[in-house]
């Protein structure tokens, strides 16, 4: 693995690090600010909204101005916002600075994909994306563990100090070692941006697969938003113990995504989705029953493991199917897909915070609803067209 790929991997990890690393600290932040947990959970929702808004702009900006200049802006924004998160003494400030942090994190997420396409041919780029996906899978395992350890030893602010340092290190590496891979294109105008996005929306398969995937993704973010309360406050786990539970679910996601790669050798992604998508409804009903009956921790952990692991079969295949007919505008389609994903996730995350009532039912009910709607989106927008 060469230095360029290592730097791209670091940039790819900013999203999961920013989301997962501070999850064990949410109850502690609420106590420190003397506010309800739901107020602190809005800082996660604001981050998701920032991710959703930022992605749709970075793609066209990098096509117009090159890759490295927007990346500098993004990393500097991220570093300043992380510093502000570590320094704030007000929950509203944390919510705003997390939004700004997300706008910075977008740069690494979007520009990394563009630079891989610039540097490598299709066969080689597939291998590089596989390595980057592995990093995306490992980061959610390590991030909450690191966050739990830092919170216990040094307090929650240390998490954002570490993120500040990491972003400054990434900025130095990008400046010193990462090549510019795309020259500015002065001919690329605003009309081209809107024309491309309108054309993508006309592809009903893209819309159907993207909505189905986004709702599954939103169910996972309902879990991310609600699980600190469920496991730390309700079930009484320590932040470190919660981090291990979170990591175990991430391991399930990685394992099933690797199984998916093997299944794809014999079966197309559409066939895998026909088998996997009904289970989002089945598992959703199961976790709703746990919420309604105030079930034991082992039942909650089992249901969550099944739901998160099943995403390893759904996420890569819905992505492939959605982009199958967007080869000419794959970059814009990828950015639009990411925007829709995080917009839906941000809305769902806000709902978990808004309807939080001190029980585990809020998280489980919203996860169930997301699962049912995801399968319905597939049945109504995709499968019906294939019949």
From TrEMBL:
Q: Report the record's Gene Ontology biological process terms.
A: xenobiotic detoxification by transmembrane export across the plasma membrane
Its chief place of residence is membrane
Q: Does the keyword Transport apply?
A: yes
Show where the Major facilitator superfamily (MFS) profile domain sits: 1-386
Concerning InterPro entries, the annotation shows: Efflux_drug-R_Bcr/CmlA, MFS, MFS_dom, MFS_trans_sf
Question: What does the entry list under GO cellular component?
Answer: plasma membrane
Give its localization.
Cell membrane
Per the record, membrane topology reads: Multi-pass membrane protein
List membrane-spanning regions: 34-58, 70-89, 95-116, 128-153, 159-178, 206-230, 242-260, 272-291, 297-315, 335-354, 360-381
Gene Ontology molecular function terms on file: xenobiotic transmembrane transporter activity
What keywords appear on the UniProt entry? Cell membrane, Membrane, Transmembrane, Transmembrane helix, Transport
**What family is it from?**
Belongs to the major facilitator superfamily. Bcr/CmlA family.
Query: What is the protein name stated in its UniProt record?
Result: Bcr/CflA family multidrug efflux MFS transporter
Organism whose genome encodes this protein = Peredibacter starrii
């Amino acid at each position: 693995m060469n230095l360029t790929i290592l730097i791209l991997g670091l940039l790819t990890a900013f999203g999961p690090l920013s989301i997962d690393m501070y999850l064990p600290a949410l109850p502690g932040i609420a106590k420190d600010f003397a506010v309800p947990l739901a107020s602190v959970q809005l800082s996660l929702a604001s981050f998701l909204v920032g991710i959703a808004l930022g992605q749709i702009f970075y793609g066209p900006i990098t096509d117009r101005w090159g890759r490295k200049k927007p990346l500098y802006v993004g990393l500097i924004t991220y570093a300043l916002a992380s510093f502000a998160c570590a320094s704030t003494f007000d929950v509203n400030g944390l919510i705003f600075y997390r939004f700004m942090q997300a706008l910075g994190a977008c740069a690494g997420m979007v520009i990394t994909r563009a630079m891989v396409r610039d540097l490598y041919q299709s066969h080689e780029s597939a291998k590089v994306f596989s390595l980057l996906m592995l990093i995306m899978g490992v980061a959610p395992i390590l991030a909450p563990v690191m966050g739990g350890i830092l919170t216990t030893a040094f307090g929650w602010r240390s998490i954002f100090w570490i993120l500040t340092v990491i972003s400054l290190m990434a900025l130095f590496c990008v400046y010193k070692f990462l090549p510019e891979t795309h020259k500015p294109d002065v001919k690329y105008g605003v009309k081209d941006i809107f024309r491309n996005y309108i054309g993508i929306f006309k592809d009903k398969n893209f819309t159907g697969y993207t909505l189905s995937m986004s709702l599954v993704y939103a169910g996972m973010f309902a879990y991310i938003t609600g699980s600190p309360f469920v496991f730390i406050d309700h079930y009484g786990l320590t932040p470190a113990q919660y981090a291990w539970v979170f990591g175990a679910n991430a391991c399930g996601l990685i394992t099933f995504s690797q199984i998916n790669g093997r299944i794809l050798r014999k079966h197309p992604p559409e066939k895998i989705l026909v088998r996997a998508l009904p289970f989002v409804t089945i598992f959703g009903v199961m976790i709703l029953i746990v919420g309604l009956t105030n079930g034991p921790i082992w039942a909650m952990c089992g249901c969550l493991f099944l739901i998160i692991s099943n995403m390893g079969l759904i996420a890569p295949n819905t992505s492939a199917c959605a982009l199958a007919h967007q080869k000419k505008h794959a970059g814009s389609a990828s950015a639009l897909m990411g925007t829709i994903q995080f917009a839906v996730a941000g809305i769902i995350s806000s709902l978990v915070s808004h309807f939080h009532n001190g029980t585990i039912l809020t998280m489980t009910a919203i996860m169930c609803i997301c699962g049912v709607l995801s399968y319905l989106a597939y049945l109504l927008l995709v499968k019906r067209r294939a019949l």
